[in-house]
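request received
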Amino acid sequence: MVKAALDPLVNKTLNIRLFHSVENVSDLRKKIMSGQLECCLVNPKLIVDPFQLVVAANKALTAKNRTTKTIFTEILFNLSVSKHITKSLQQFGITDDCRDLLVVTVGDDDSRVLSEIKGTEVELGALEEIRDLGAVKKAYKIGPEEGATSTIVDSVVSRIATKDFISH
Amino acid sequence: MEGFELFRQGAEGRIFKGVYLGKPAIAKERFVKKYRHPDLDSHLTKERIKSESRSIIRCKSAGIRTPALYLVDFNRRTIFMEYFENSIVVKDFIAQASNEVISKLALKIGAVLGKMHANSIIHGDLTTSNMLLVNKNGQKSYSNLQDLELIFIDFGLSHVESSAEDKGVDLYVLERALISTHSTASEIFDQVLEGYKLENKSGFKEVLAKFKEVQARGRKRTMVG
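response:
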């Protein structure tokens, strides 16, 4: 897992965990949608580096006004460069047939969320095998010229940071 | 600002250095201008922060390395962005480099600048203090130009404009900056133009003509008649 400190103003920690072969995905989704489970499930295919989630979550937590209903949907929304809420949530969220997933929680203790997940936790380094760089470049509209100079993570987080006023 | 220390101070704002989200970062905060109406002030600041971020992203898309942006916060009037730890300001690099190396570097600067202008980005404050050389291997060594990557910073005065006039002025600002800081300014600038020509072939002639015009009259257009 990765624990990341967010903006000093927010003064909260972000917990990111990666799970393999999760069996109760549809159950988890239902619980999140009904508000019983306070976490955000992200499709690991489009995540290059945990830092990508840190920047998106930090933006969600420091924002004065949110675009979506909860902090967790806001994280998913921020991950996408699209301004379309449904589209963003579908793009970065998970579907019932996903088996690998990233679990993002806010706060010191994420044990309640953890107890609900029926799957194996793995190191975040395993992201490297799951992520689809081609799909990431497409999702963030990173062309070949840009890929040659900046690292993908830099390009991705810079787009997330500016999504509300630059159309990518 | 918590965890940050003052790094630079300018007329428009302050730059703090520290660690943000676990990365070495700078926070660029723009001052509240007390002499302006608060609404106008926050509006202008917001627009400037937006335009600075926009240019940084636009450069990235064009393949020009710029700092990564971590958070743009209009309430705090601050941009949090990447700090390059293993870097040297081009100004200091030139002061200690041989003429041969400087000439190669100038060519590189010109090429990146040509690319920037070809993509309609006007930097607005081209000086050798606003260019960094970063060691690609993460070491604190700046002896081999081939290991160094050129990075443009401070897009605070930048804008997007395709006119040759603004590009000419941009070049003129660089020429003046070179003259005031480096003894071999004219050689450096000639090389910059050479590099520029390589990356902005189609626009070079027109921009050069405008540059000569600006050189003759100064940065501001004459408002007579």
